[in-house]
User: Fold these one by one.
Assistant:
Number 1:
Amino acid sequence: MKSHLLKASLLVLLPIFLASALWGVAEASDLASAANIFLYPKPSKMANLTLNTASGRTVNLSDYKGKVVLLHFWSIRCPACRMEEPLLDGLKKTFCHGELEIVGVNLVDNPRAIADHAIKNRCSFPMCYDGGRGFNLQPVNMGGKRTAFLVNPAREAILEVPVFPTTYIIDCNGNLVGYSVGAARWNDRNVVALLKKLMSETRCSQIGSSTPKSKRMSMLRSVR
């Protein structure tokens, strides 16, 4: 019964994922050719994700609202992941004031091995696994094309993870705004500029929604 429900949800979501992929190609800016990063023309809401870190801490994706997040799917045995990890680590250190959060997600390797990897490589961002919460990667064959979907405890497909690494960019409002399939050049200046732009939008949104009008005017005057 569960497998039928999963297949049904995938059938519903397949047109969305296919459309998203086509949109990404059509709307790709110079970022695509320079760094293998693609932008969606319209943001879409990201579902919450609850995982455990290698140190035993619980991570809720919803806790990062107000920050830009890179949701990075990886595997220990993936050569491209090993190549990309130092770039992500450097990116995290570039934004050292907490404006950017990187969440490494590994749903295929042993938690002990994930923890050892995080310690050995001194990762500057959390390396997460499911820890029995019911999130997993479900392999799917779609017309001869093998891919996988991140599935939640309700057996609903949340995201497509066709290969490792796959990384999704989430804005301050918890919306998916971009993605990368395969290794990306996270140290590319265009990528840094994109993330700074998203963070700037975050600050503007926070000023507009949570700060009293009198204080907002004072802040704007001080900026000028």
Number 2:
Amino acid sequence: MSDYVRRQLIFEVGDHLFAADAQAVCEVLEPISAATPIPGAVPGIHGLINLRGTLLVTGNLGSLLGLTSKPVAEPALVIFEHESRKIALEIDRVVDVTSAPDGDEDVNGRLLKALGAREVVAGASQFGQRPCFRLDMGAVFALVLEDQRGDWAGAGTERGAG
């Protein structure tokens, strides 16, 4: 086992706990209600938002994964980055920022089989008494941005950048 320790953001979506590598998290904000709709967007995508001059695709992570979000008092908008692209996804609640030793995951076992959105999960471990699914951010970005038509699929760059 390696001595590498991965920092991660732990958060809830519906009844599930998820983790994202801290390197993929740019910031956590309060949800933004106004988004410009995107014709033909995948279910769960709200549209485009302008965040300090950067256009971002925004949506609800639970809806994208086919999960039912819980009505909560602490929803958050997480700005994720992968390969210089950014997206803004709503989650139900931030739980913690913690460290996880590399390799402490059940990558092919029973925990992954419990989640229908397996294609976006890189591994599973325990957080307290609950299973926690680590997201494969490349797969999440592919779910949101790839196989879409139109200029919006390139969103997440500065205006005027070419």
Number 3:
Amino acid sequence: MIQGTVSANLDLAVRLIITGPDERSVEVEAFIDTGFDGALTLPPDVISRLGLTIAGDATITLADGSIVQHNVFSASVLWDSQSRRVFVTEVESEPLIGTKLLSGFELIARFTPNGQFTIRKP
């Protein structure tokens, strides 16, 4: 089970540990984004600190309909006490958790400022 917090703005945030290929790890605060169908986004500085190497690129359609290209990397994330290999999309914003990482899990949230939420296997 994964525990997170609901911000005063009603954003859902969780702390994640991400590991690169040489076992360097970084802890980040990532926000749930159900409009993102990938696994995880990270900003360039975090990708650099982890020593991730490019695995390809992705074409992404944004909410406004514009289409953009982003680099994609491979990393491991500690998810529900298990190391899980994921593709990381490089985006110049706060880290985001998409529906691919949430797949197979249940998200239970009470949208109250400074509240809690849970991600768990059903």
